[in-house]
Design a protein that fits this description.
Strand content of chain B: under 5%
Mean pLDDT of chain A: 88
Structural class of chain B: mainly alpha
Number of helices of chain B: 5
Helix content of chain B: 25-40%
CATH architecture of one domain in chain B: Orthogonal Bundle
Strand content of chain A: under 5%
Number of helices of chain A: 22
Largest sheet of chain A: 2 strands, antiparallel
Helix content of chain A: over 70%
Number of strands of chain B: 0
Number of strands of chain A: 4
CATH superfamily of one domain in chain B: Cytochrome c-like domain
Mean pLDDT of chain B: 88
Radius of gyration of chain B: 24 Å
Oligomer: heterodimer
Chain lengths: ~625, ~170
Amino acid sequence: MNGGATPSKKLLVLLAVVGAALALFAVVRVASFLTSAEYRAPIRGPEATEETTPRAEGLADERAAARKKALEKPYEEVEYRAFPKIGSRVAVWVVAQLHLLFAAFVLAVPLFAFIIEAIGYKTGDGRYDRLAHEFTKLLSVSFSLTATFGAFLTFLLIILYPKFTTYLVSVFSPTFLPYVLLFFGEAFFLYTYYYGWGKFHPLVHLGLGLGLNVVGTAIMFIANAWLTFMTSPAGVSEKGAVLSVWDAVHNYTWMPINVHRVIANVAFGGSVAAAYAAFKFLQAKTDEERAHYDWMGYIGNFVAIIAFLPLPFAGYWLAKEIYAYSQTLGLTMMGGAFSWLFIIQAVLIGNLFLAANYYLWLGMGRIEGVSSFQRFIKYLLIAITVCFMVWATPRSIIATVSEVRAMGGSSHPVLGFLGVMSAKNTAVNILILTTFMSFLLYRRTGKTATVSWARAGNAAQVLIFALAAGFVIFLGIYGYFVEATVRIGLSVPQVLSVLIAMVSITAIDVFLFRGAARTGEVRWGRIPAASQYVLIFIAVTFTWLMGLMGYVRSGLRQHWHVYGVVRDHSADAFTPTLGFATKVVSVTVLAFFLLIGFVFWLASLHDKKDWEPRTGTS
Amino acid sequence: MIRVPLVLRLAGLVLASTAFYTYVGQMVPQKEVFPPQEVVLLADMTTADMVRVGGEIMEGKGLCFTCHTVGKKGPLRFPDLEGIAVRASARIPGLSDVEYFAQSMYEPDLFVVSGFNPGMPVIPKPPIGLTDPEILCVIAHLQSLGGTPTVTMETKHRYNNSAVASGAKP
């Protein structure tokens, strides 16, 4: 070897030893494989019992016997069938959740696209019309995926839970034909709305959008009847016989779920649309593109958060109806097997509030003259963090025996007081108020009120905010000193005071800033890239939250298909651990984002140049 | 510096966020809840056996401790059961403790303890659906909370017999 380093003798010896060991190992493995596969004489029975029939004839006989047996066997309805590997419950769970996520998106996007288009028509600002059109680009593929997952879910139910599905069909048979007809209507309105953009008079087009929303909402209401009946059945006898289809539809949780889902769908749809805008912003090559997608992301997130603010109130109504239907069911949810799920929910909602506020604070940077408001951010952050911590405090703590003895029970002597509903209701109401204040500050950035009563108006707003916050906190503390009958009722004035504060402060703000002087322009696109990742994080968190809450809504029935009426006798009739449930939710969320990524990609093809064959230069 | 493609960055964010929430899900207490086991009740069970079995039913199939507590104070949603045997015989004039317990399970809304909302389900009906002998065992257990159990498997009350029971013993 010329010029090369000569390996040392020691290294060569070491390599030889290692090589020999590997060779020995390989020889042993090959030998053991060959030994295990060597020919062995078959174990033969005694001469008298040996089968003398030729093999082909024996197989034919077996087939004939099996056929004869099958022909003689009377038809038996199977109660359950098993899905391979993952089991029937997980299969139905994942497919149902994916169907719901796409359905939520398909119902939500037309709702705010319609509103944005209407704003564009009213103001004559073409940007709104283009924005609404861009949102609807995401619809057609999502609609196909919704329908595909819906069909998949139906087949899974028929195959895996045939008896229960037959029962559900028998109860709701009059609802299926209208459902199918409405689905045709949905397809008609959706495609005409999308492909007819700019082809009709704006009012005709808005009419198509309205039709799309009405039909979509009606479809959801029908499907909601089926699933809410399973949780809070009505209109059937104790043994399940149908007494009134309308009562079965109009059961305790039907309307609360309808309202909750409409609001939640808008919040979810807004967040996914904002994620799409963020994706496009991060891909953008020009300032113009960045400005457009920054604006789109802002609108999507605005829609999501505005819808998100009243969502806890709708959730409260739903929980109230569950309690009204069955205290046992309500307590299973909040104090039993599912109580810790609401700690996970607190983490998710806390993250949503933090992320939404962070996005707003980052967004202030795109407006000139922002500094006067930025000093308030630290106080808002403190309030959000404290509320988050209160909400995430569990009532009982998992502790060792000695720790439980030291605490005098499973509740912490001090922190345990923050784990009850009085504290949590207070925390969520203050969270909502704080986020609302963030919006208000953002809205005011770059503007100065010029009306003569500006000082009085500001003072009135601060007073209303302080009164609402003080009242909510007072009721929260008061709740510790009164009986259950009084305490449960305190949530309503808490919620009402927050709603009244938000409506009245907004009303004052609208008039206060009418004709306001501009101190700085909004520079769309001038926002840190981090803000776009925040939008995507919000979309993931919303999706995960929907998956989790979908699980509790369905899992609440525990070992019942229809609570108290049709018992679940399958192998999956137990409630899994929350750890398992969260893994299933995560898999579903990842599958959803994989598919929605595909939808985003397809939508972005619209802006790509058409393919052209290469032309030769010679 | 290597620039990670956007799609990979976004995939990483989605994966990391999902992984974080999955991790939170593993941090909370993990418990599988199975459908309640059917309890085999023998006709010749002693009262002491009934107290024990009644306790098991209350913890399991009866779902009693989903709402009720024993020995807990403070803002409660449903009445605490500590010392209930003492209060039961004096709660409704004319009703023995056995009759009172039976009424609160068969017709729970007839009497609601002051300061609490109605909310007790009808125990012999689904979704709980305890049988008459199972309810007798629960009564035995309730009697043991601050008192001396007296019921037997033959004890009659107005819900399992047309003749009105006058006391604990048949």
